[in-house]
Amino acid sequence: MGRKRQPSSFKESPKGYLNGYSEQVQQQVIALLDAEKTGDLLLKKYPSAHGLNNTRQLYDYAMDIKNTFMRSSSPISKIIYDDKIHVINNALGLHTYVSRVQGNKLKAKNEIRIASMFRRTPEPLLKMILVHELAHLKEKDHNKAFYKLCCHMEPDYHQLEFDLRLYLTHRDRFGDLWC
Ligand SMILES: [Zn+2]
């Protein structure tokens, strides 16, 4: 067998995760991937995964951020890792607003679900995705006010979002970095 089969995702360009960035940045990322340098780069910056493995820990961690920066915004009933969220382009997490009729009352509930791959990421990247979903409590769209709120909660938001997208691109080609 002379020919080596590449994994099916090998040929995919990383543009899906990085299409918000300039062509130049995207080319730099492709060069880093081809040189197999993205793994070392990310591990050097983020040596280990967070230890927030269960729902309770995740909830407490997220509520701590909410109570610090967004105390007055609507309450959240649930914050969970969700195996059903597949990370495709922007679908890293979901913020849902559920209305349920209980007795004769209509109860509205905010729920935050994040992709279960975030169980195995460094804390700063988990924080970034939680900040993103928390900001959606106030701002539905990815507009200026939305990103301003994200940066208020996490000043390094934009760099972290880039690093997360870099990791997602890396992960498609090489697999998980943190266990
Ligand atoms: Zn969003």
TrEMBL record:
Q: Which InterPro entries match?
A: UTP_pyrophosphatase-like (IPR053136), YgjP-like_metallopeptidase (IPR002725)
Which residues are the signal sequence here? none
Q: Which CDD domains match?
A: M48_yhfN_like
Tell me the ranges covered by the YgjP-like metallopeptidase domain, including all copies: 107-164
Against Pfam families, the record matches this protein to: YgjP-like (PF01863)
Quote the protein name from its UniProt record: M48 family metallopeptidase
Q: Where is the organism placed in the taxonomic lineage, from the top?
A: Bacteria, Pseudomonadati, Pseudomonadota, Gammaproteobacteria, Oceanospirillales
